[in-house]
Amino acid sequence: MLTASANTSPKKQEYFRRRSEGSQTNSRRVSFESPLLQCRYSRCGKTIPKSSPEASSWKNCHNCSYIYCSRTCRRAHWEKHRKTCLFSRIGTLCRQVIASIKEQKETLYHLSLIARRGYLSHGLGAVKCFFPGPDKADKFLTGGLNDLGELTYVRWPDLLPSEMGPQLYSELVQMCKTYNPDTKMVLYVSVCVVSETPATGAVKWERQLVSRCAKMRLSKDFFFSVPENPETLILTCNSIEEGNEEAKKLKELSIDNVLKELRARGVSLKRQHPIIFKQLCAYANGTCEKFTPITVYPKDATTGKSFMCIIMLEADPESLRQVESAGVKVRTVNVLCAAAE
C-alpha cells in the first residue's frame, strides 16, 4: 500500500491517498466475483442474485456464455450479438479444425488423397469439410479422423458465395486459382449453426454456415507411398429435355436411383450429406434446372472402405470421358435405368 511521510506536502499527500484508493479498488476488481446475474440486453439490464430461484429460468445464448432474463431479451439482442457470437466463436472453431488437420498425420494424408483425386477428376478446386454442428467439430478435435466432417471436392467455379459471404468467397476462389495441385491443396471448413431468430409469437430458428479456408501442403507421406486407387462410382444420365411432365418424371426417377444406389452401400444422403440431398431435391422438383456435378467420399457399410462417388446428372459425353480416363478405377451407372445396376 502506498503511504506518504509526515514531511510530504499536502498536494503529494493527496496524490498518494488517491493512488492508494485506486490500488485497493483495482485489487477488488481483480478478486471480486459478482454474486449477481445481469441480462446482457442493454435495454433491459435486469439484475438478480445468482442464488435466486428465478435464476434457473434465465436463458443462455445457444452458442456462448451470454445470459438473458427471458427469450424475449435474447431474441431482441440477437441481431446485435450474432456477429460477435457466431462469427467469432465458430470462426475460431473452424481455424482450430484446420490447425488440427495439419497436425494429424492420418487425417492430412486422407485429405491429400481426396484433393489429388478431385483435381485429377475435376480440375482446380477445394476439399470441403462440413460439420452439421459445433459439437461435431469439437468432437473431431479430440477424436481425429473417425470424427471428421462430411467431405466433398468442389470445383472453384461451383463455389457458392451465398454459403460464405463475398469476402471469404473471393479469398477462396483466389486460393483455388493459384495453388499448385502437385504440392498443395485448398481446404474449406464449414460449420452449421442453428440459432433462434428475433420474432414475435412462436420460436423461429435459422441455419447459418460459418466457414474458414486455408491453403496447405499435401501430406509428406503422400509423396513416399503409392496410394491405392479407390473404387470410383459415377452416377450419371443422359440430357433431359425441359418443359413437359415427362421430364419431371425422368428427373424424379434419376434422383430415386441415385439414392437407391447409395443406400445399397449403406449411405444415406439425406442423413449424412443433407446439403447435397437438398440440391438433388431442388433438381427433381424443378427449382434448380441443372445439377452441378459434385464428388463425395462416403464409406461403404459392407466393406468399411471409403469410395469416391461422382454425381454427374445430365453430363455431356466429353466430361464423362475425361473423368473415366483420369487414371482411377471407375464404375459408371446410368441412373435413368429402371433399376440401378
From TrEMBL:
Residues 11-21 have a biased composition (Basic and acidic residues). Residues 43-85 form the MYND-type domain. Gene3D superfamilies: 6.10.140.2220. Residues 1-29 are annotated as: Disordered. Keywords: Metal-binding, Zinc, Zinc-finger. GO terms for molecular function: zinc ion binding. The keyword NADP does not apply. Residues 1-10 have a biased composition (Polar residues). This is Uncharacterized protein C9orf172-like Protein. InterPro entries: Ajm-1, Apical_junction, Znf_MYND. PANTHER family: APICAL JUNCTION COMPONENT 1 HOMOLOG. GO terms for biological process: cell-cell junction organization. Residues 86-199 form the Apical junction molecule ajm1 alpha/beta domain.
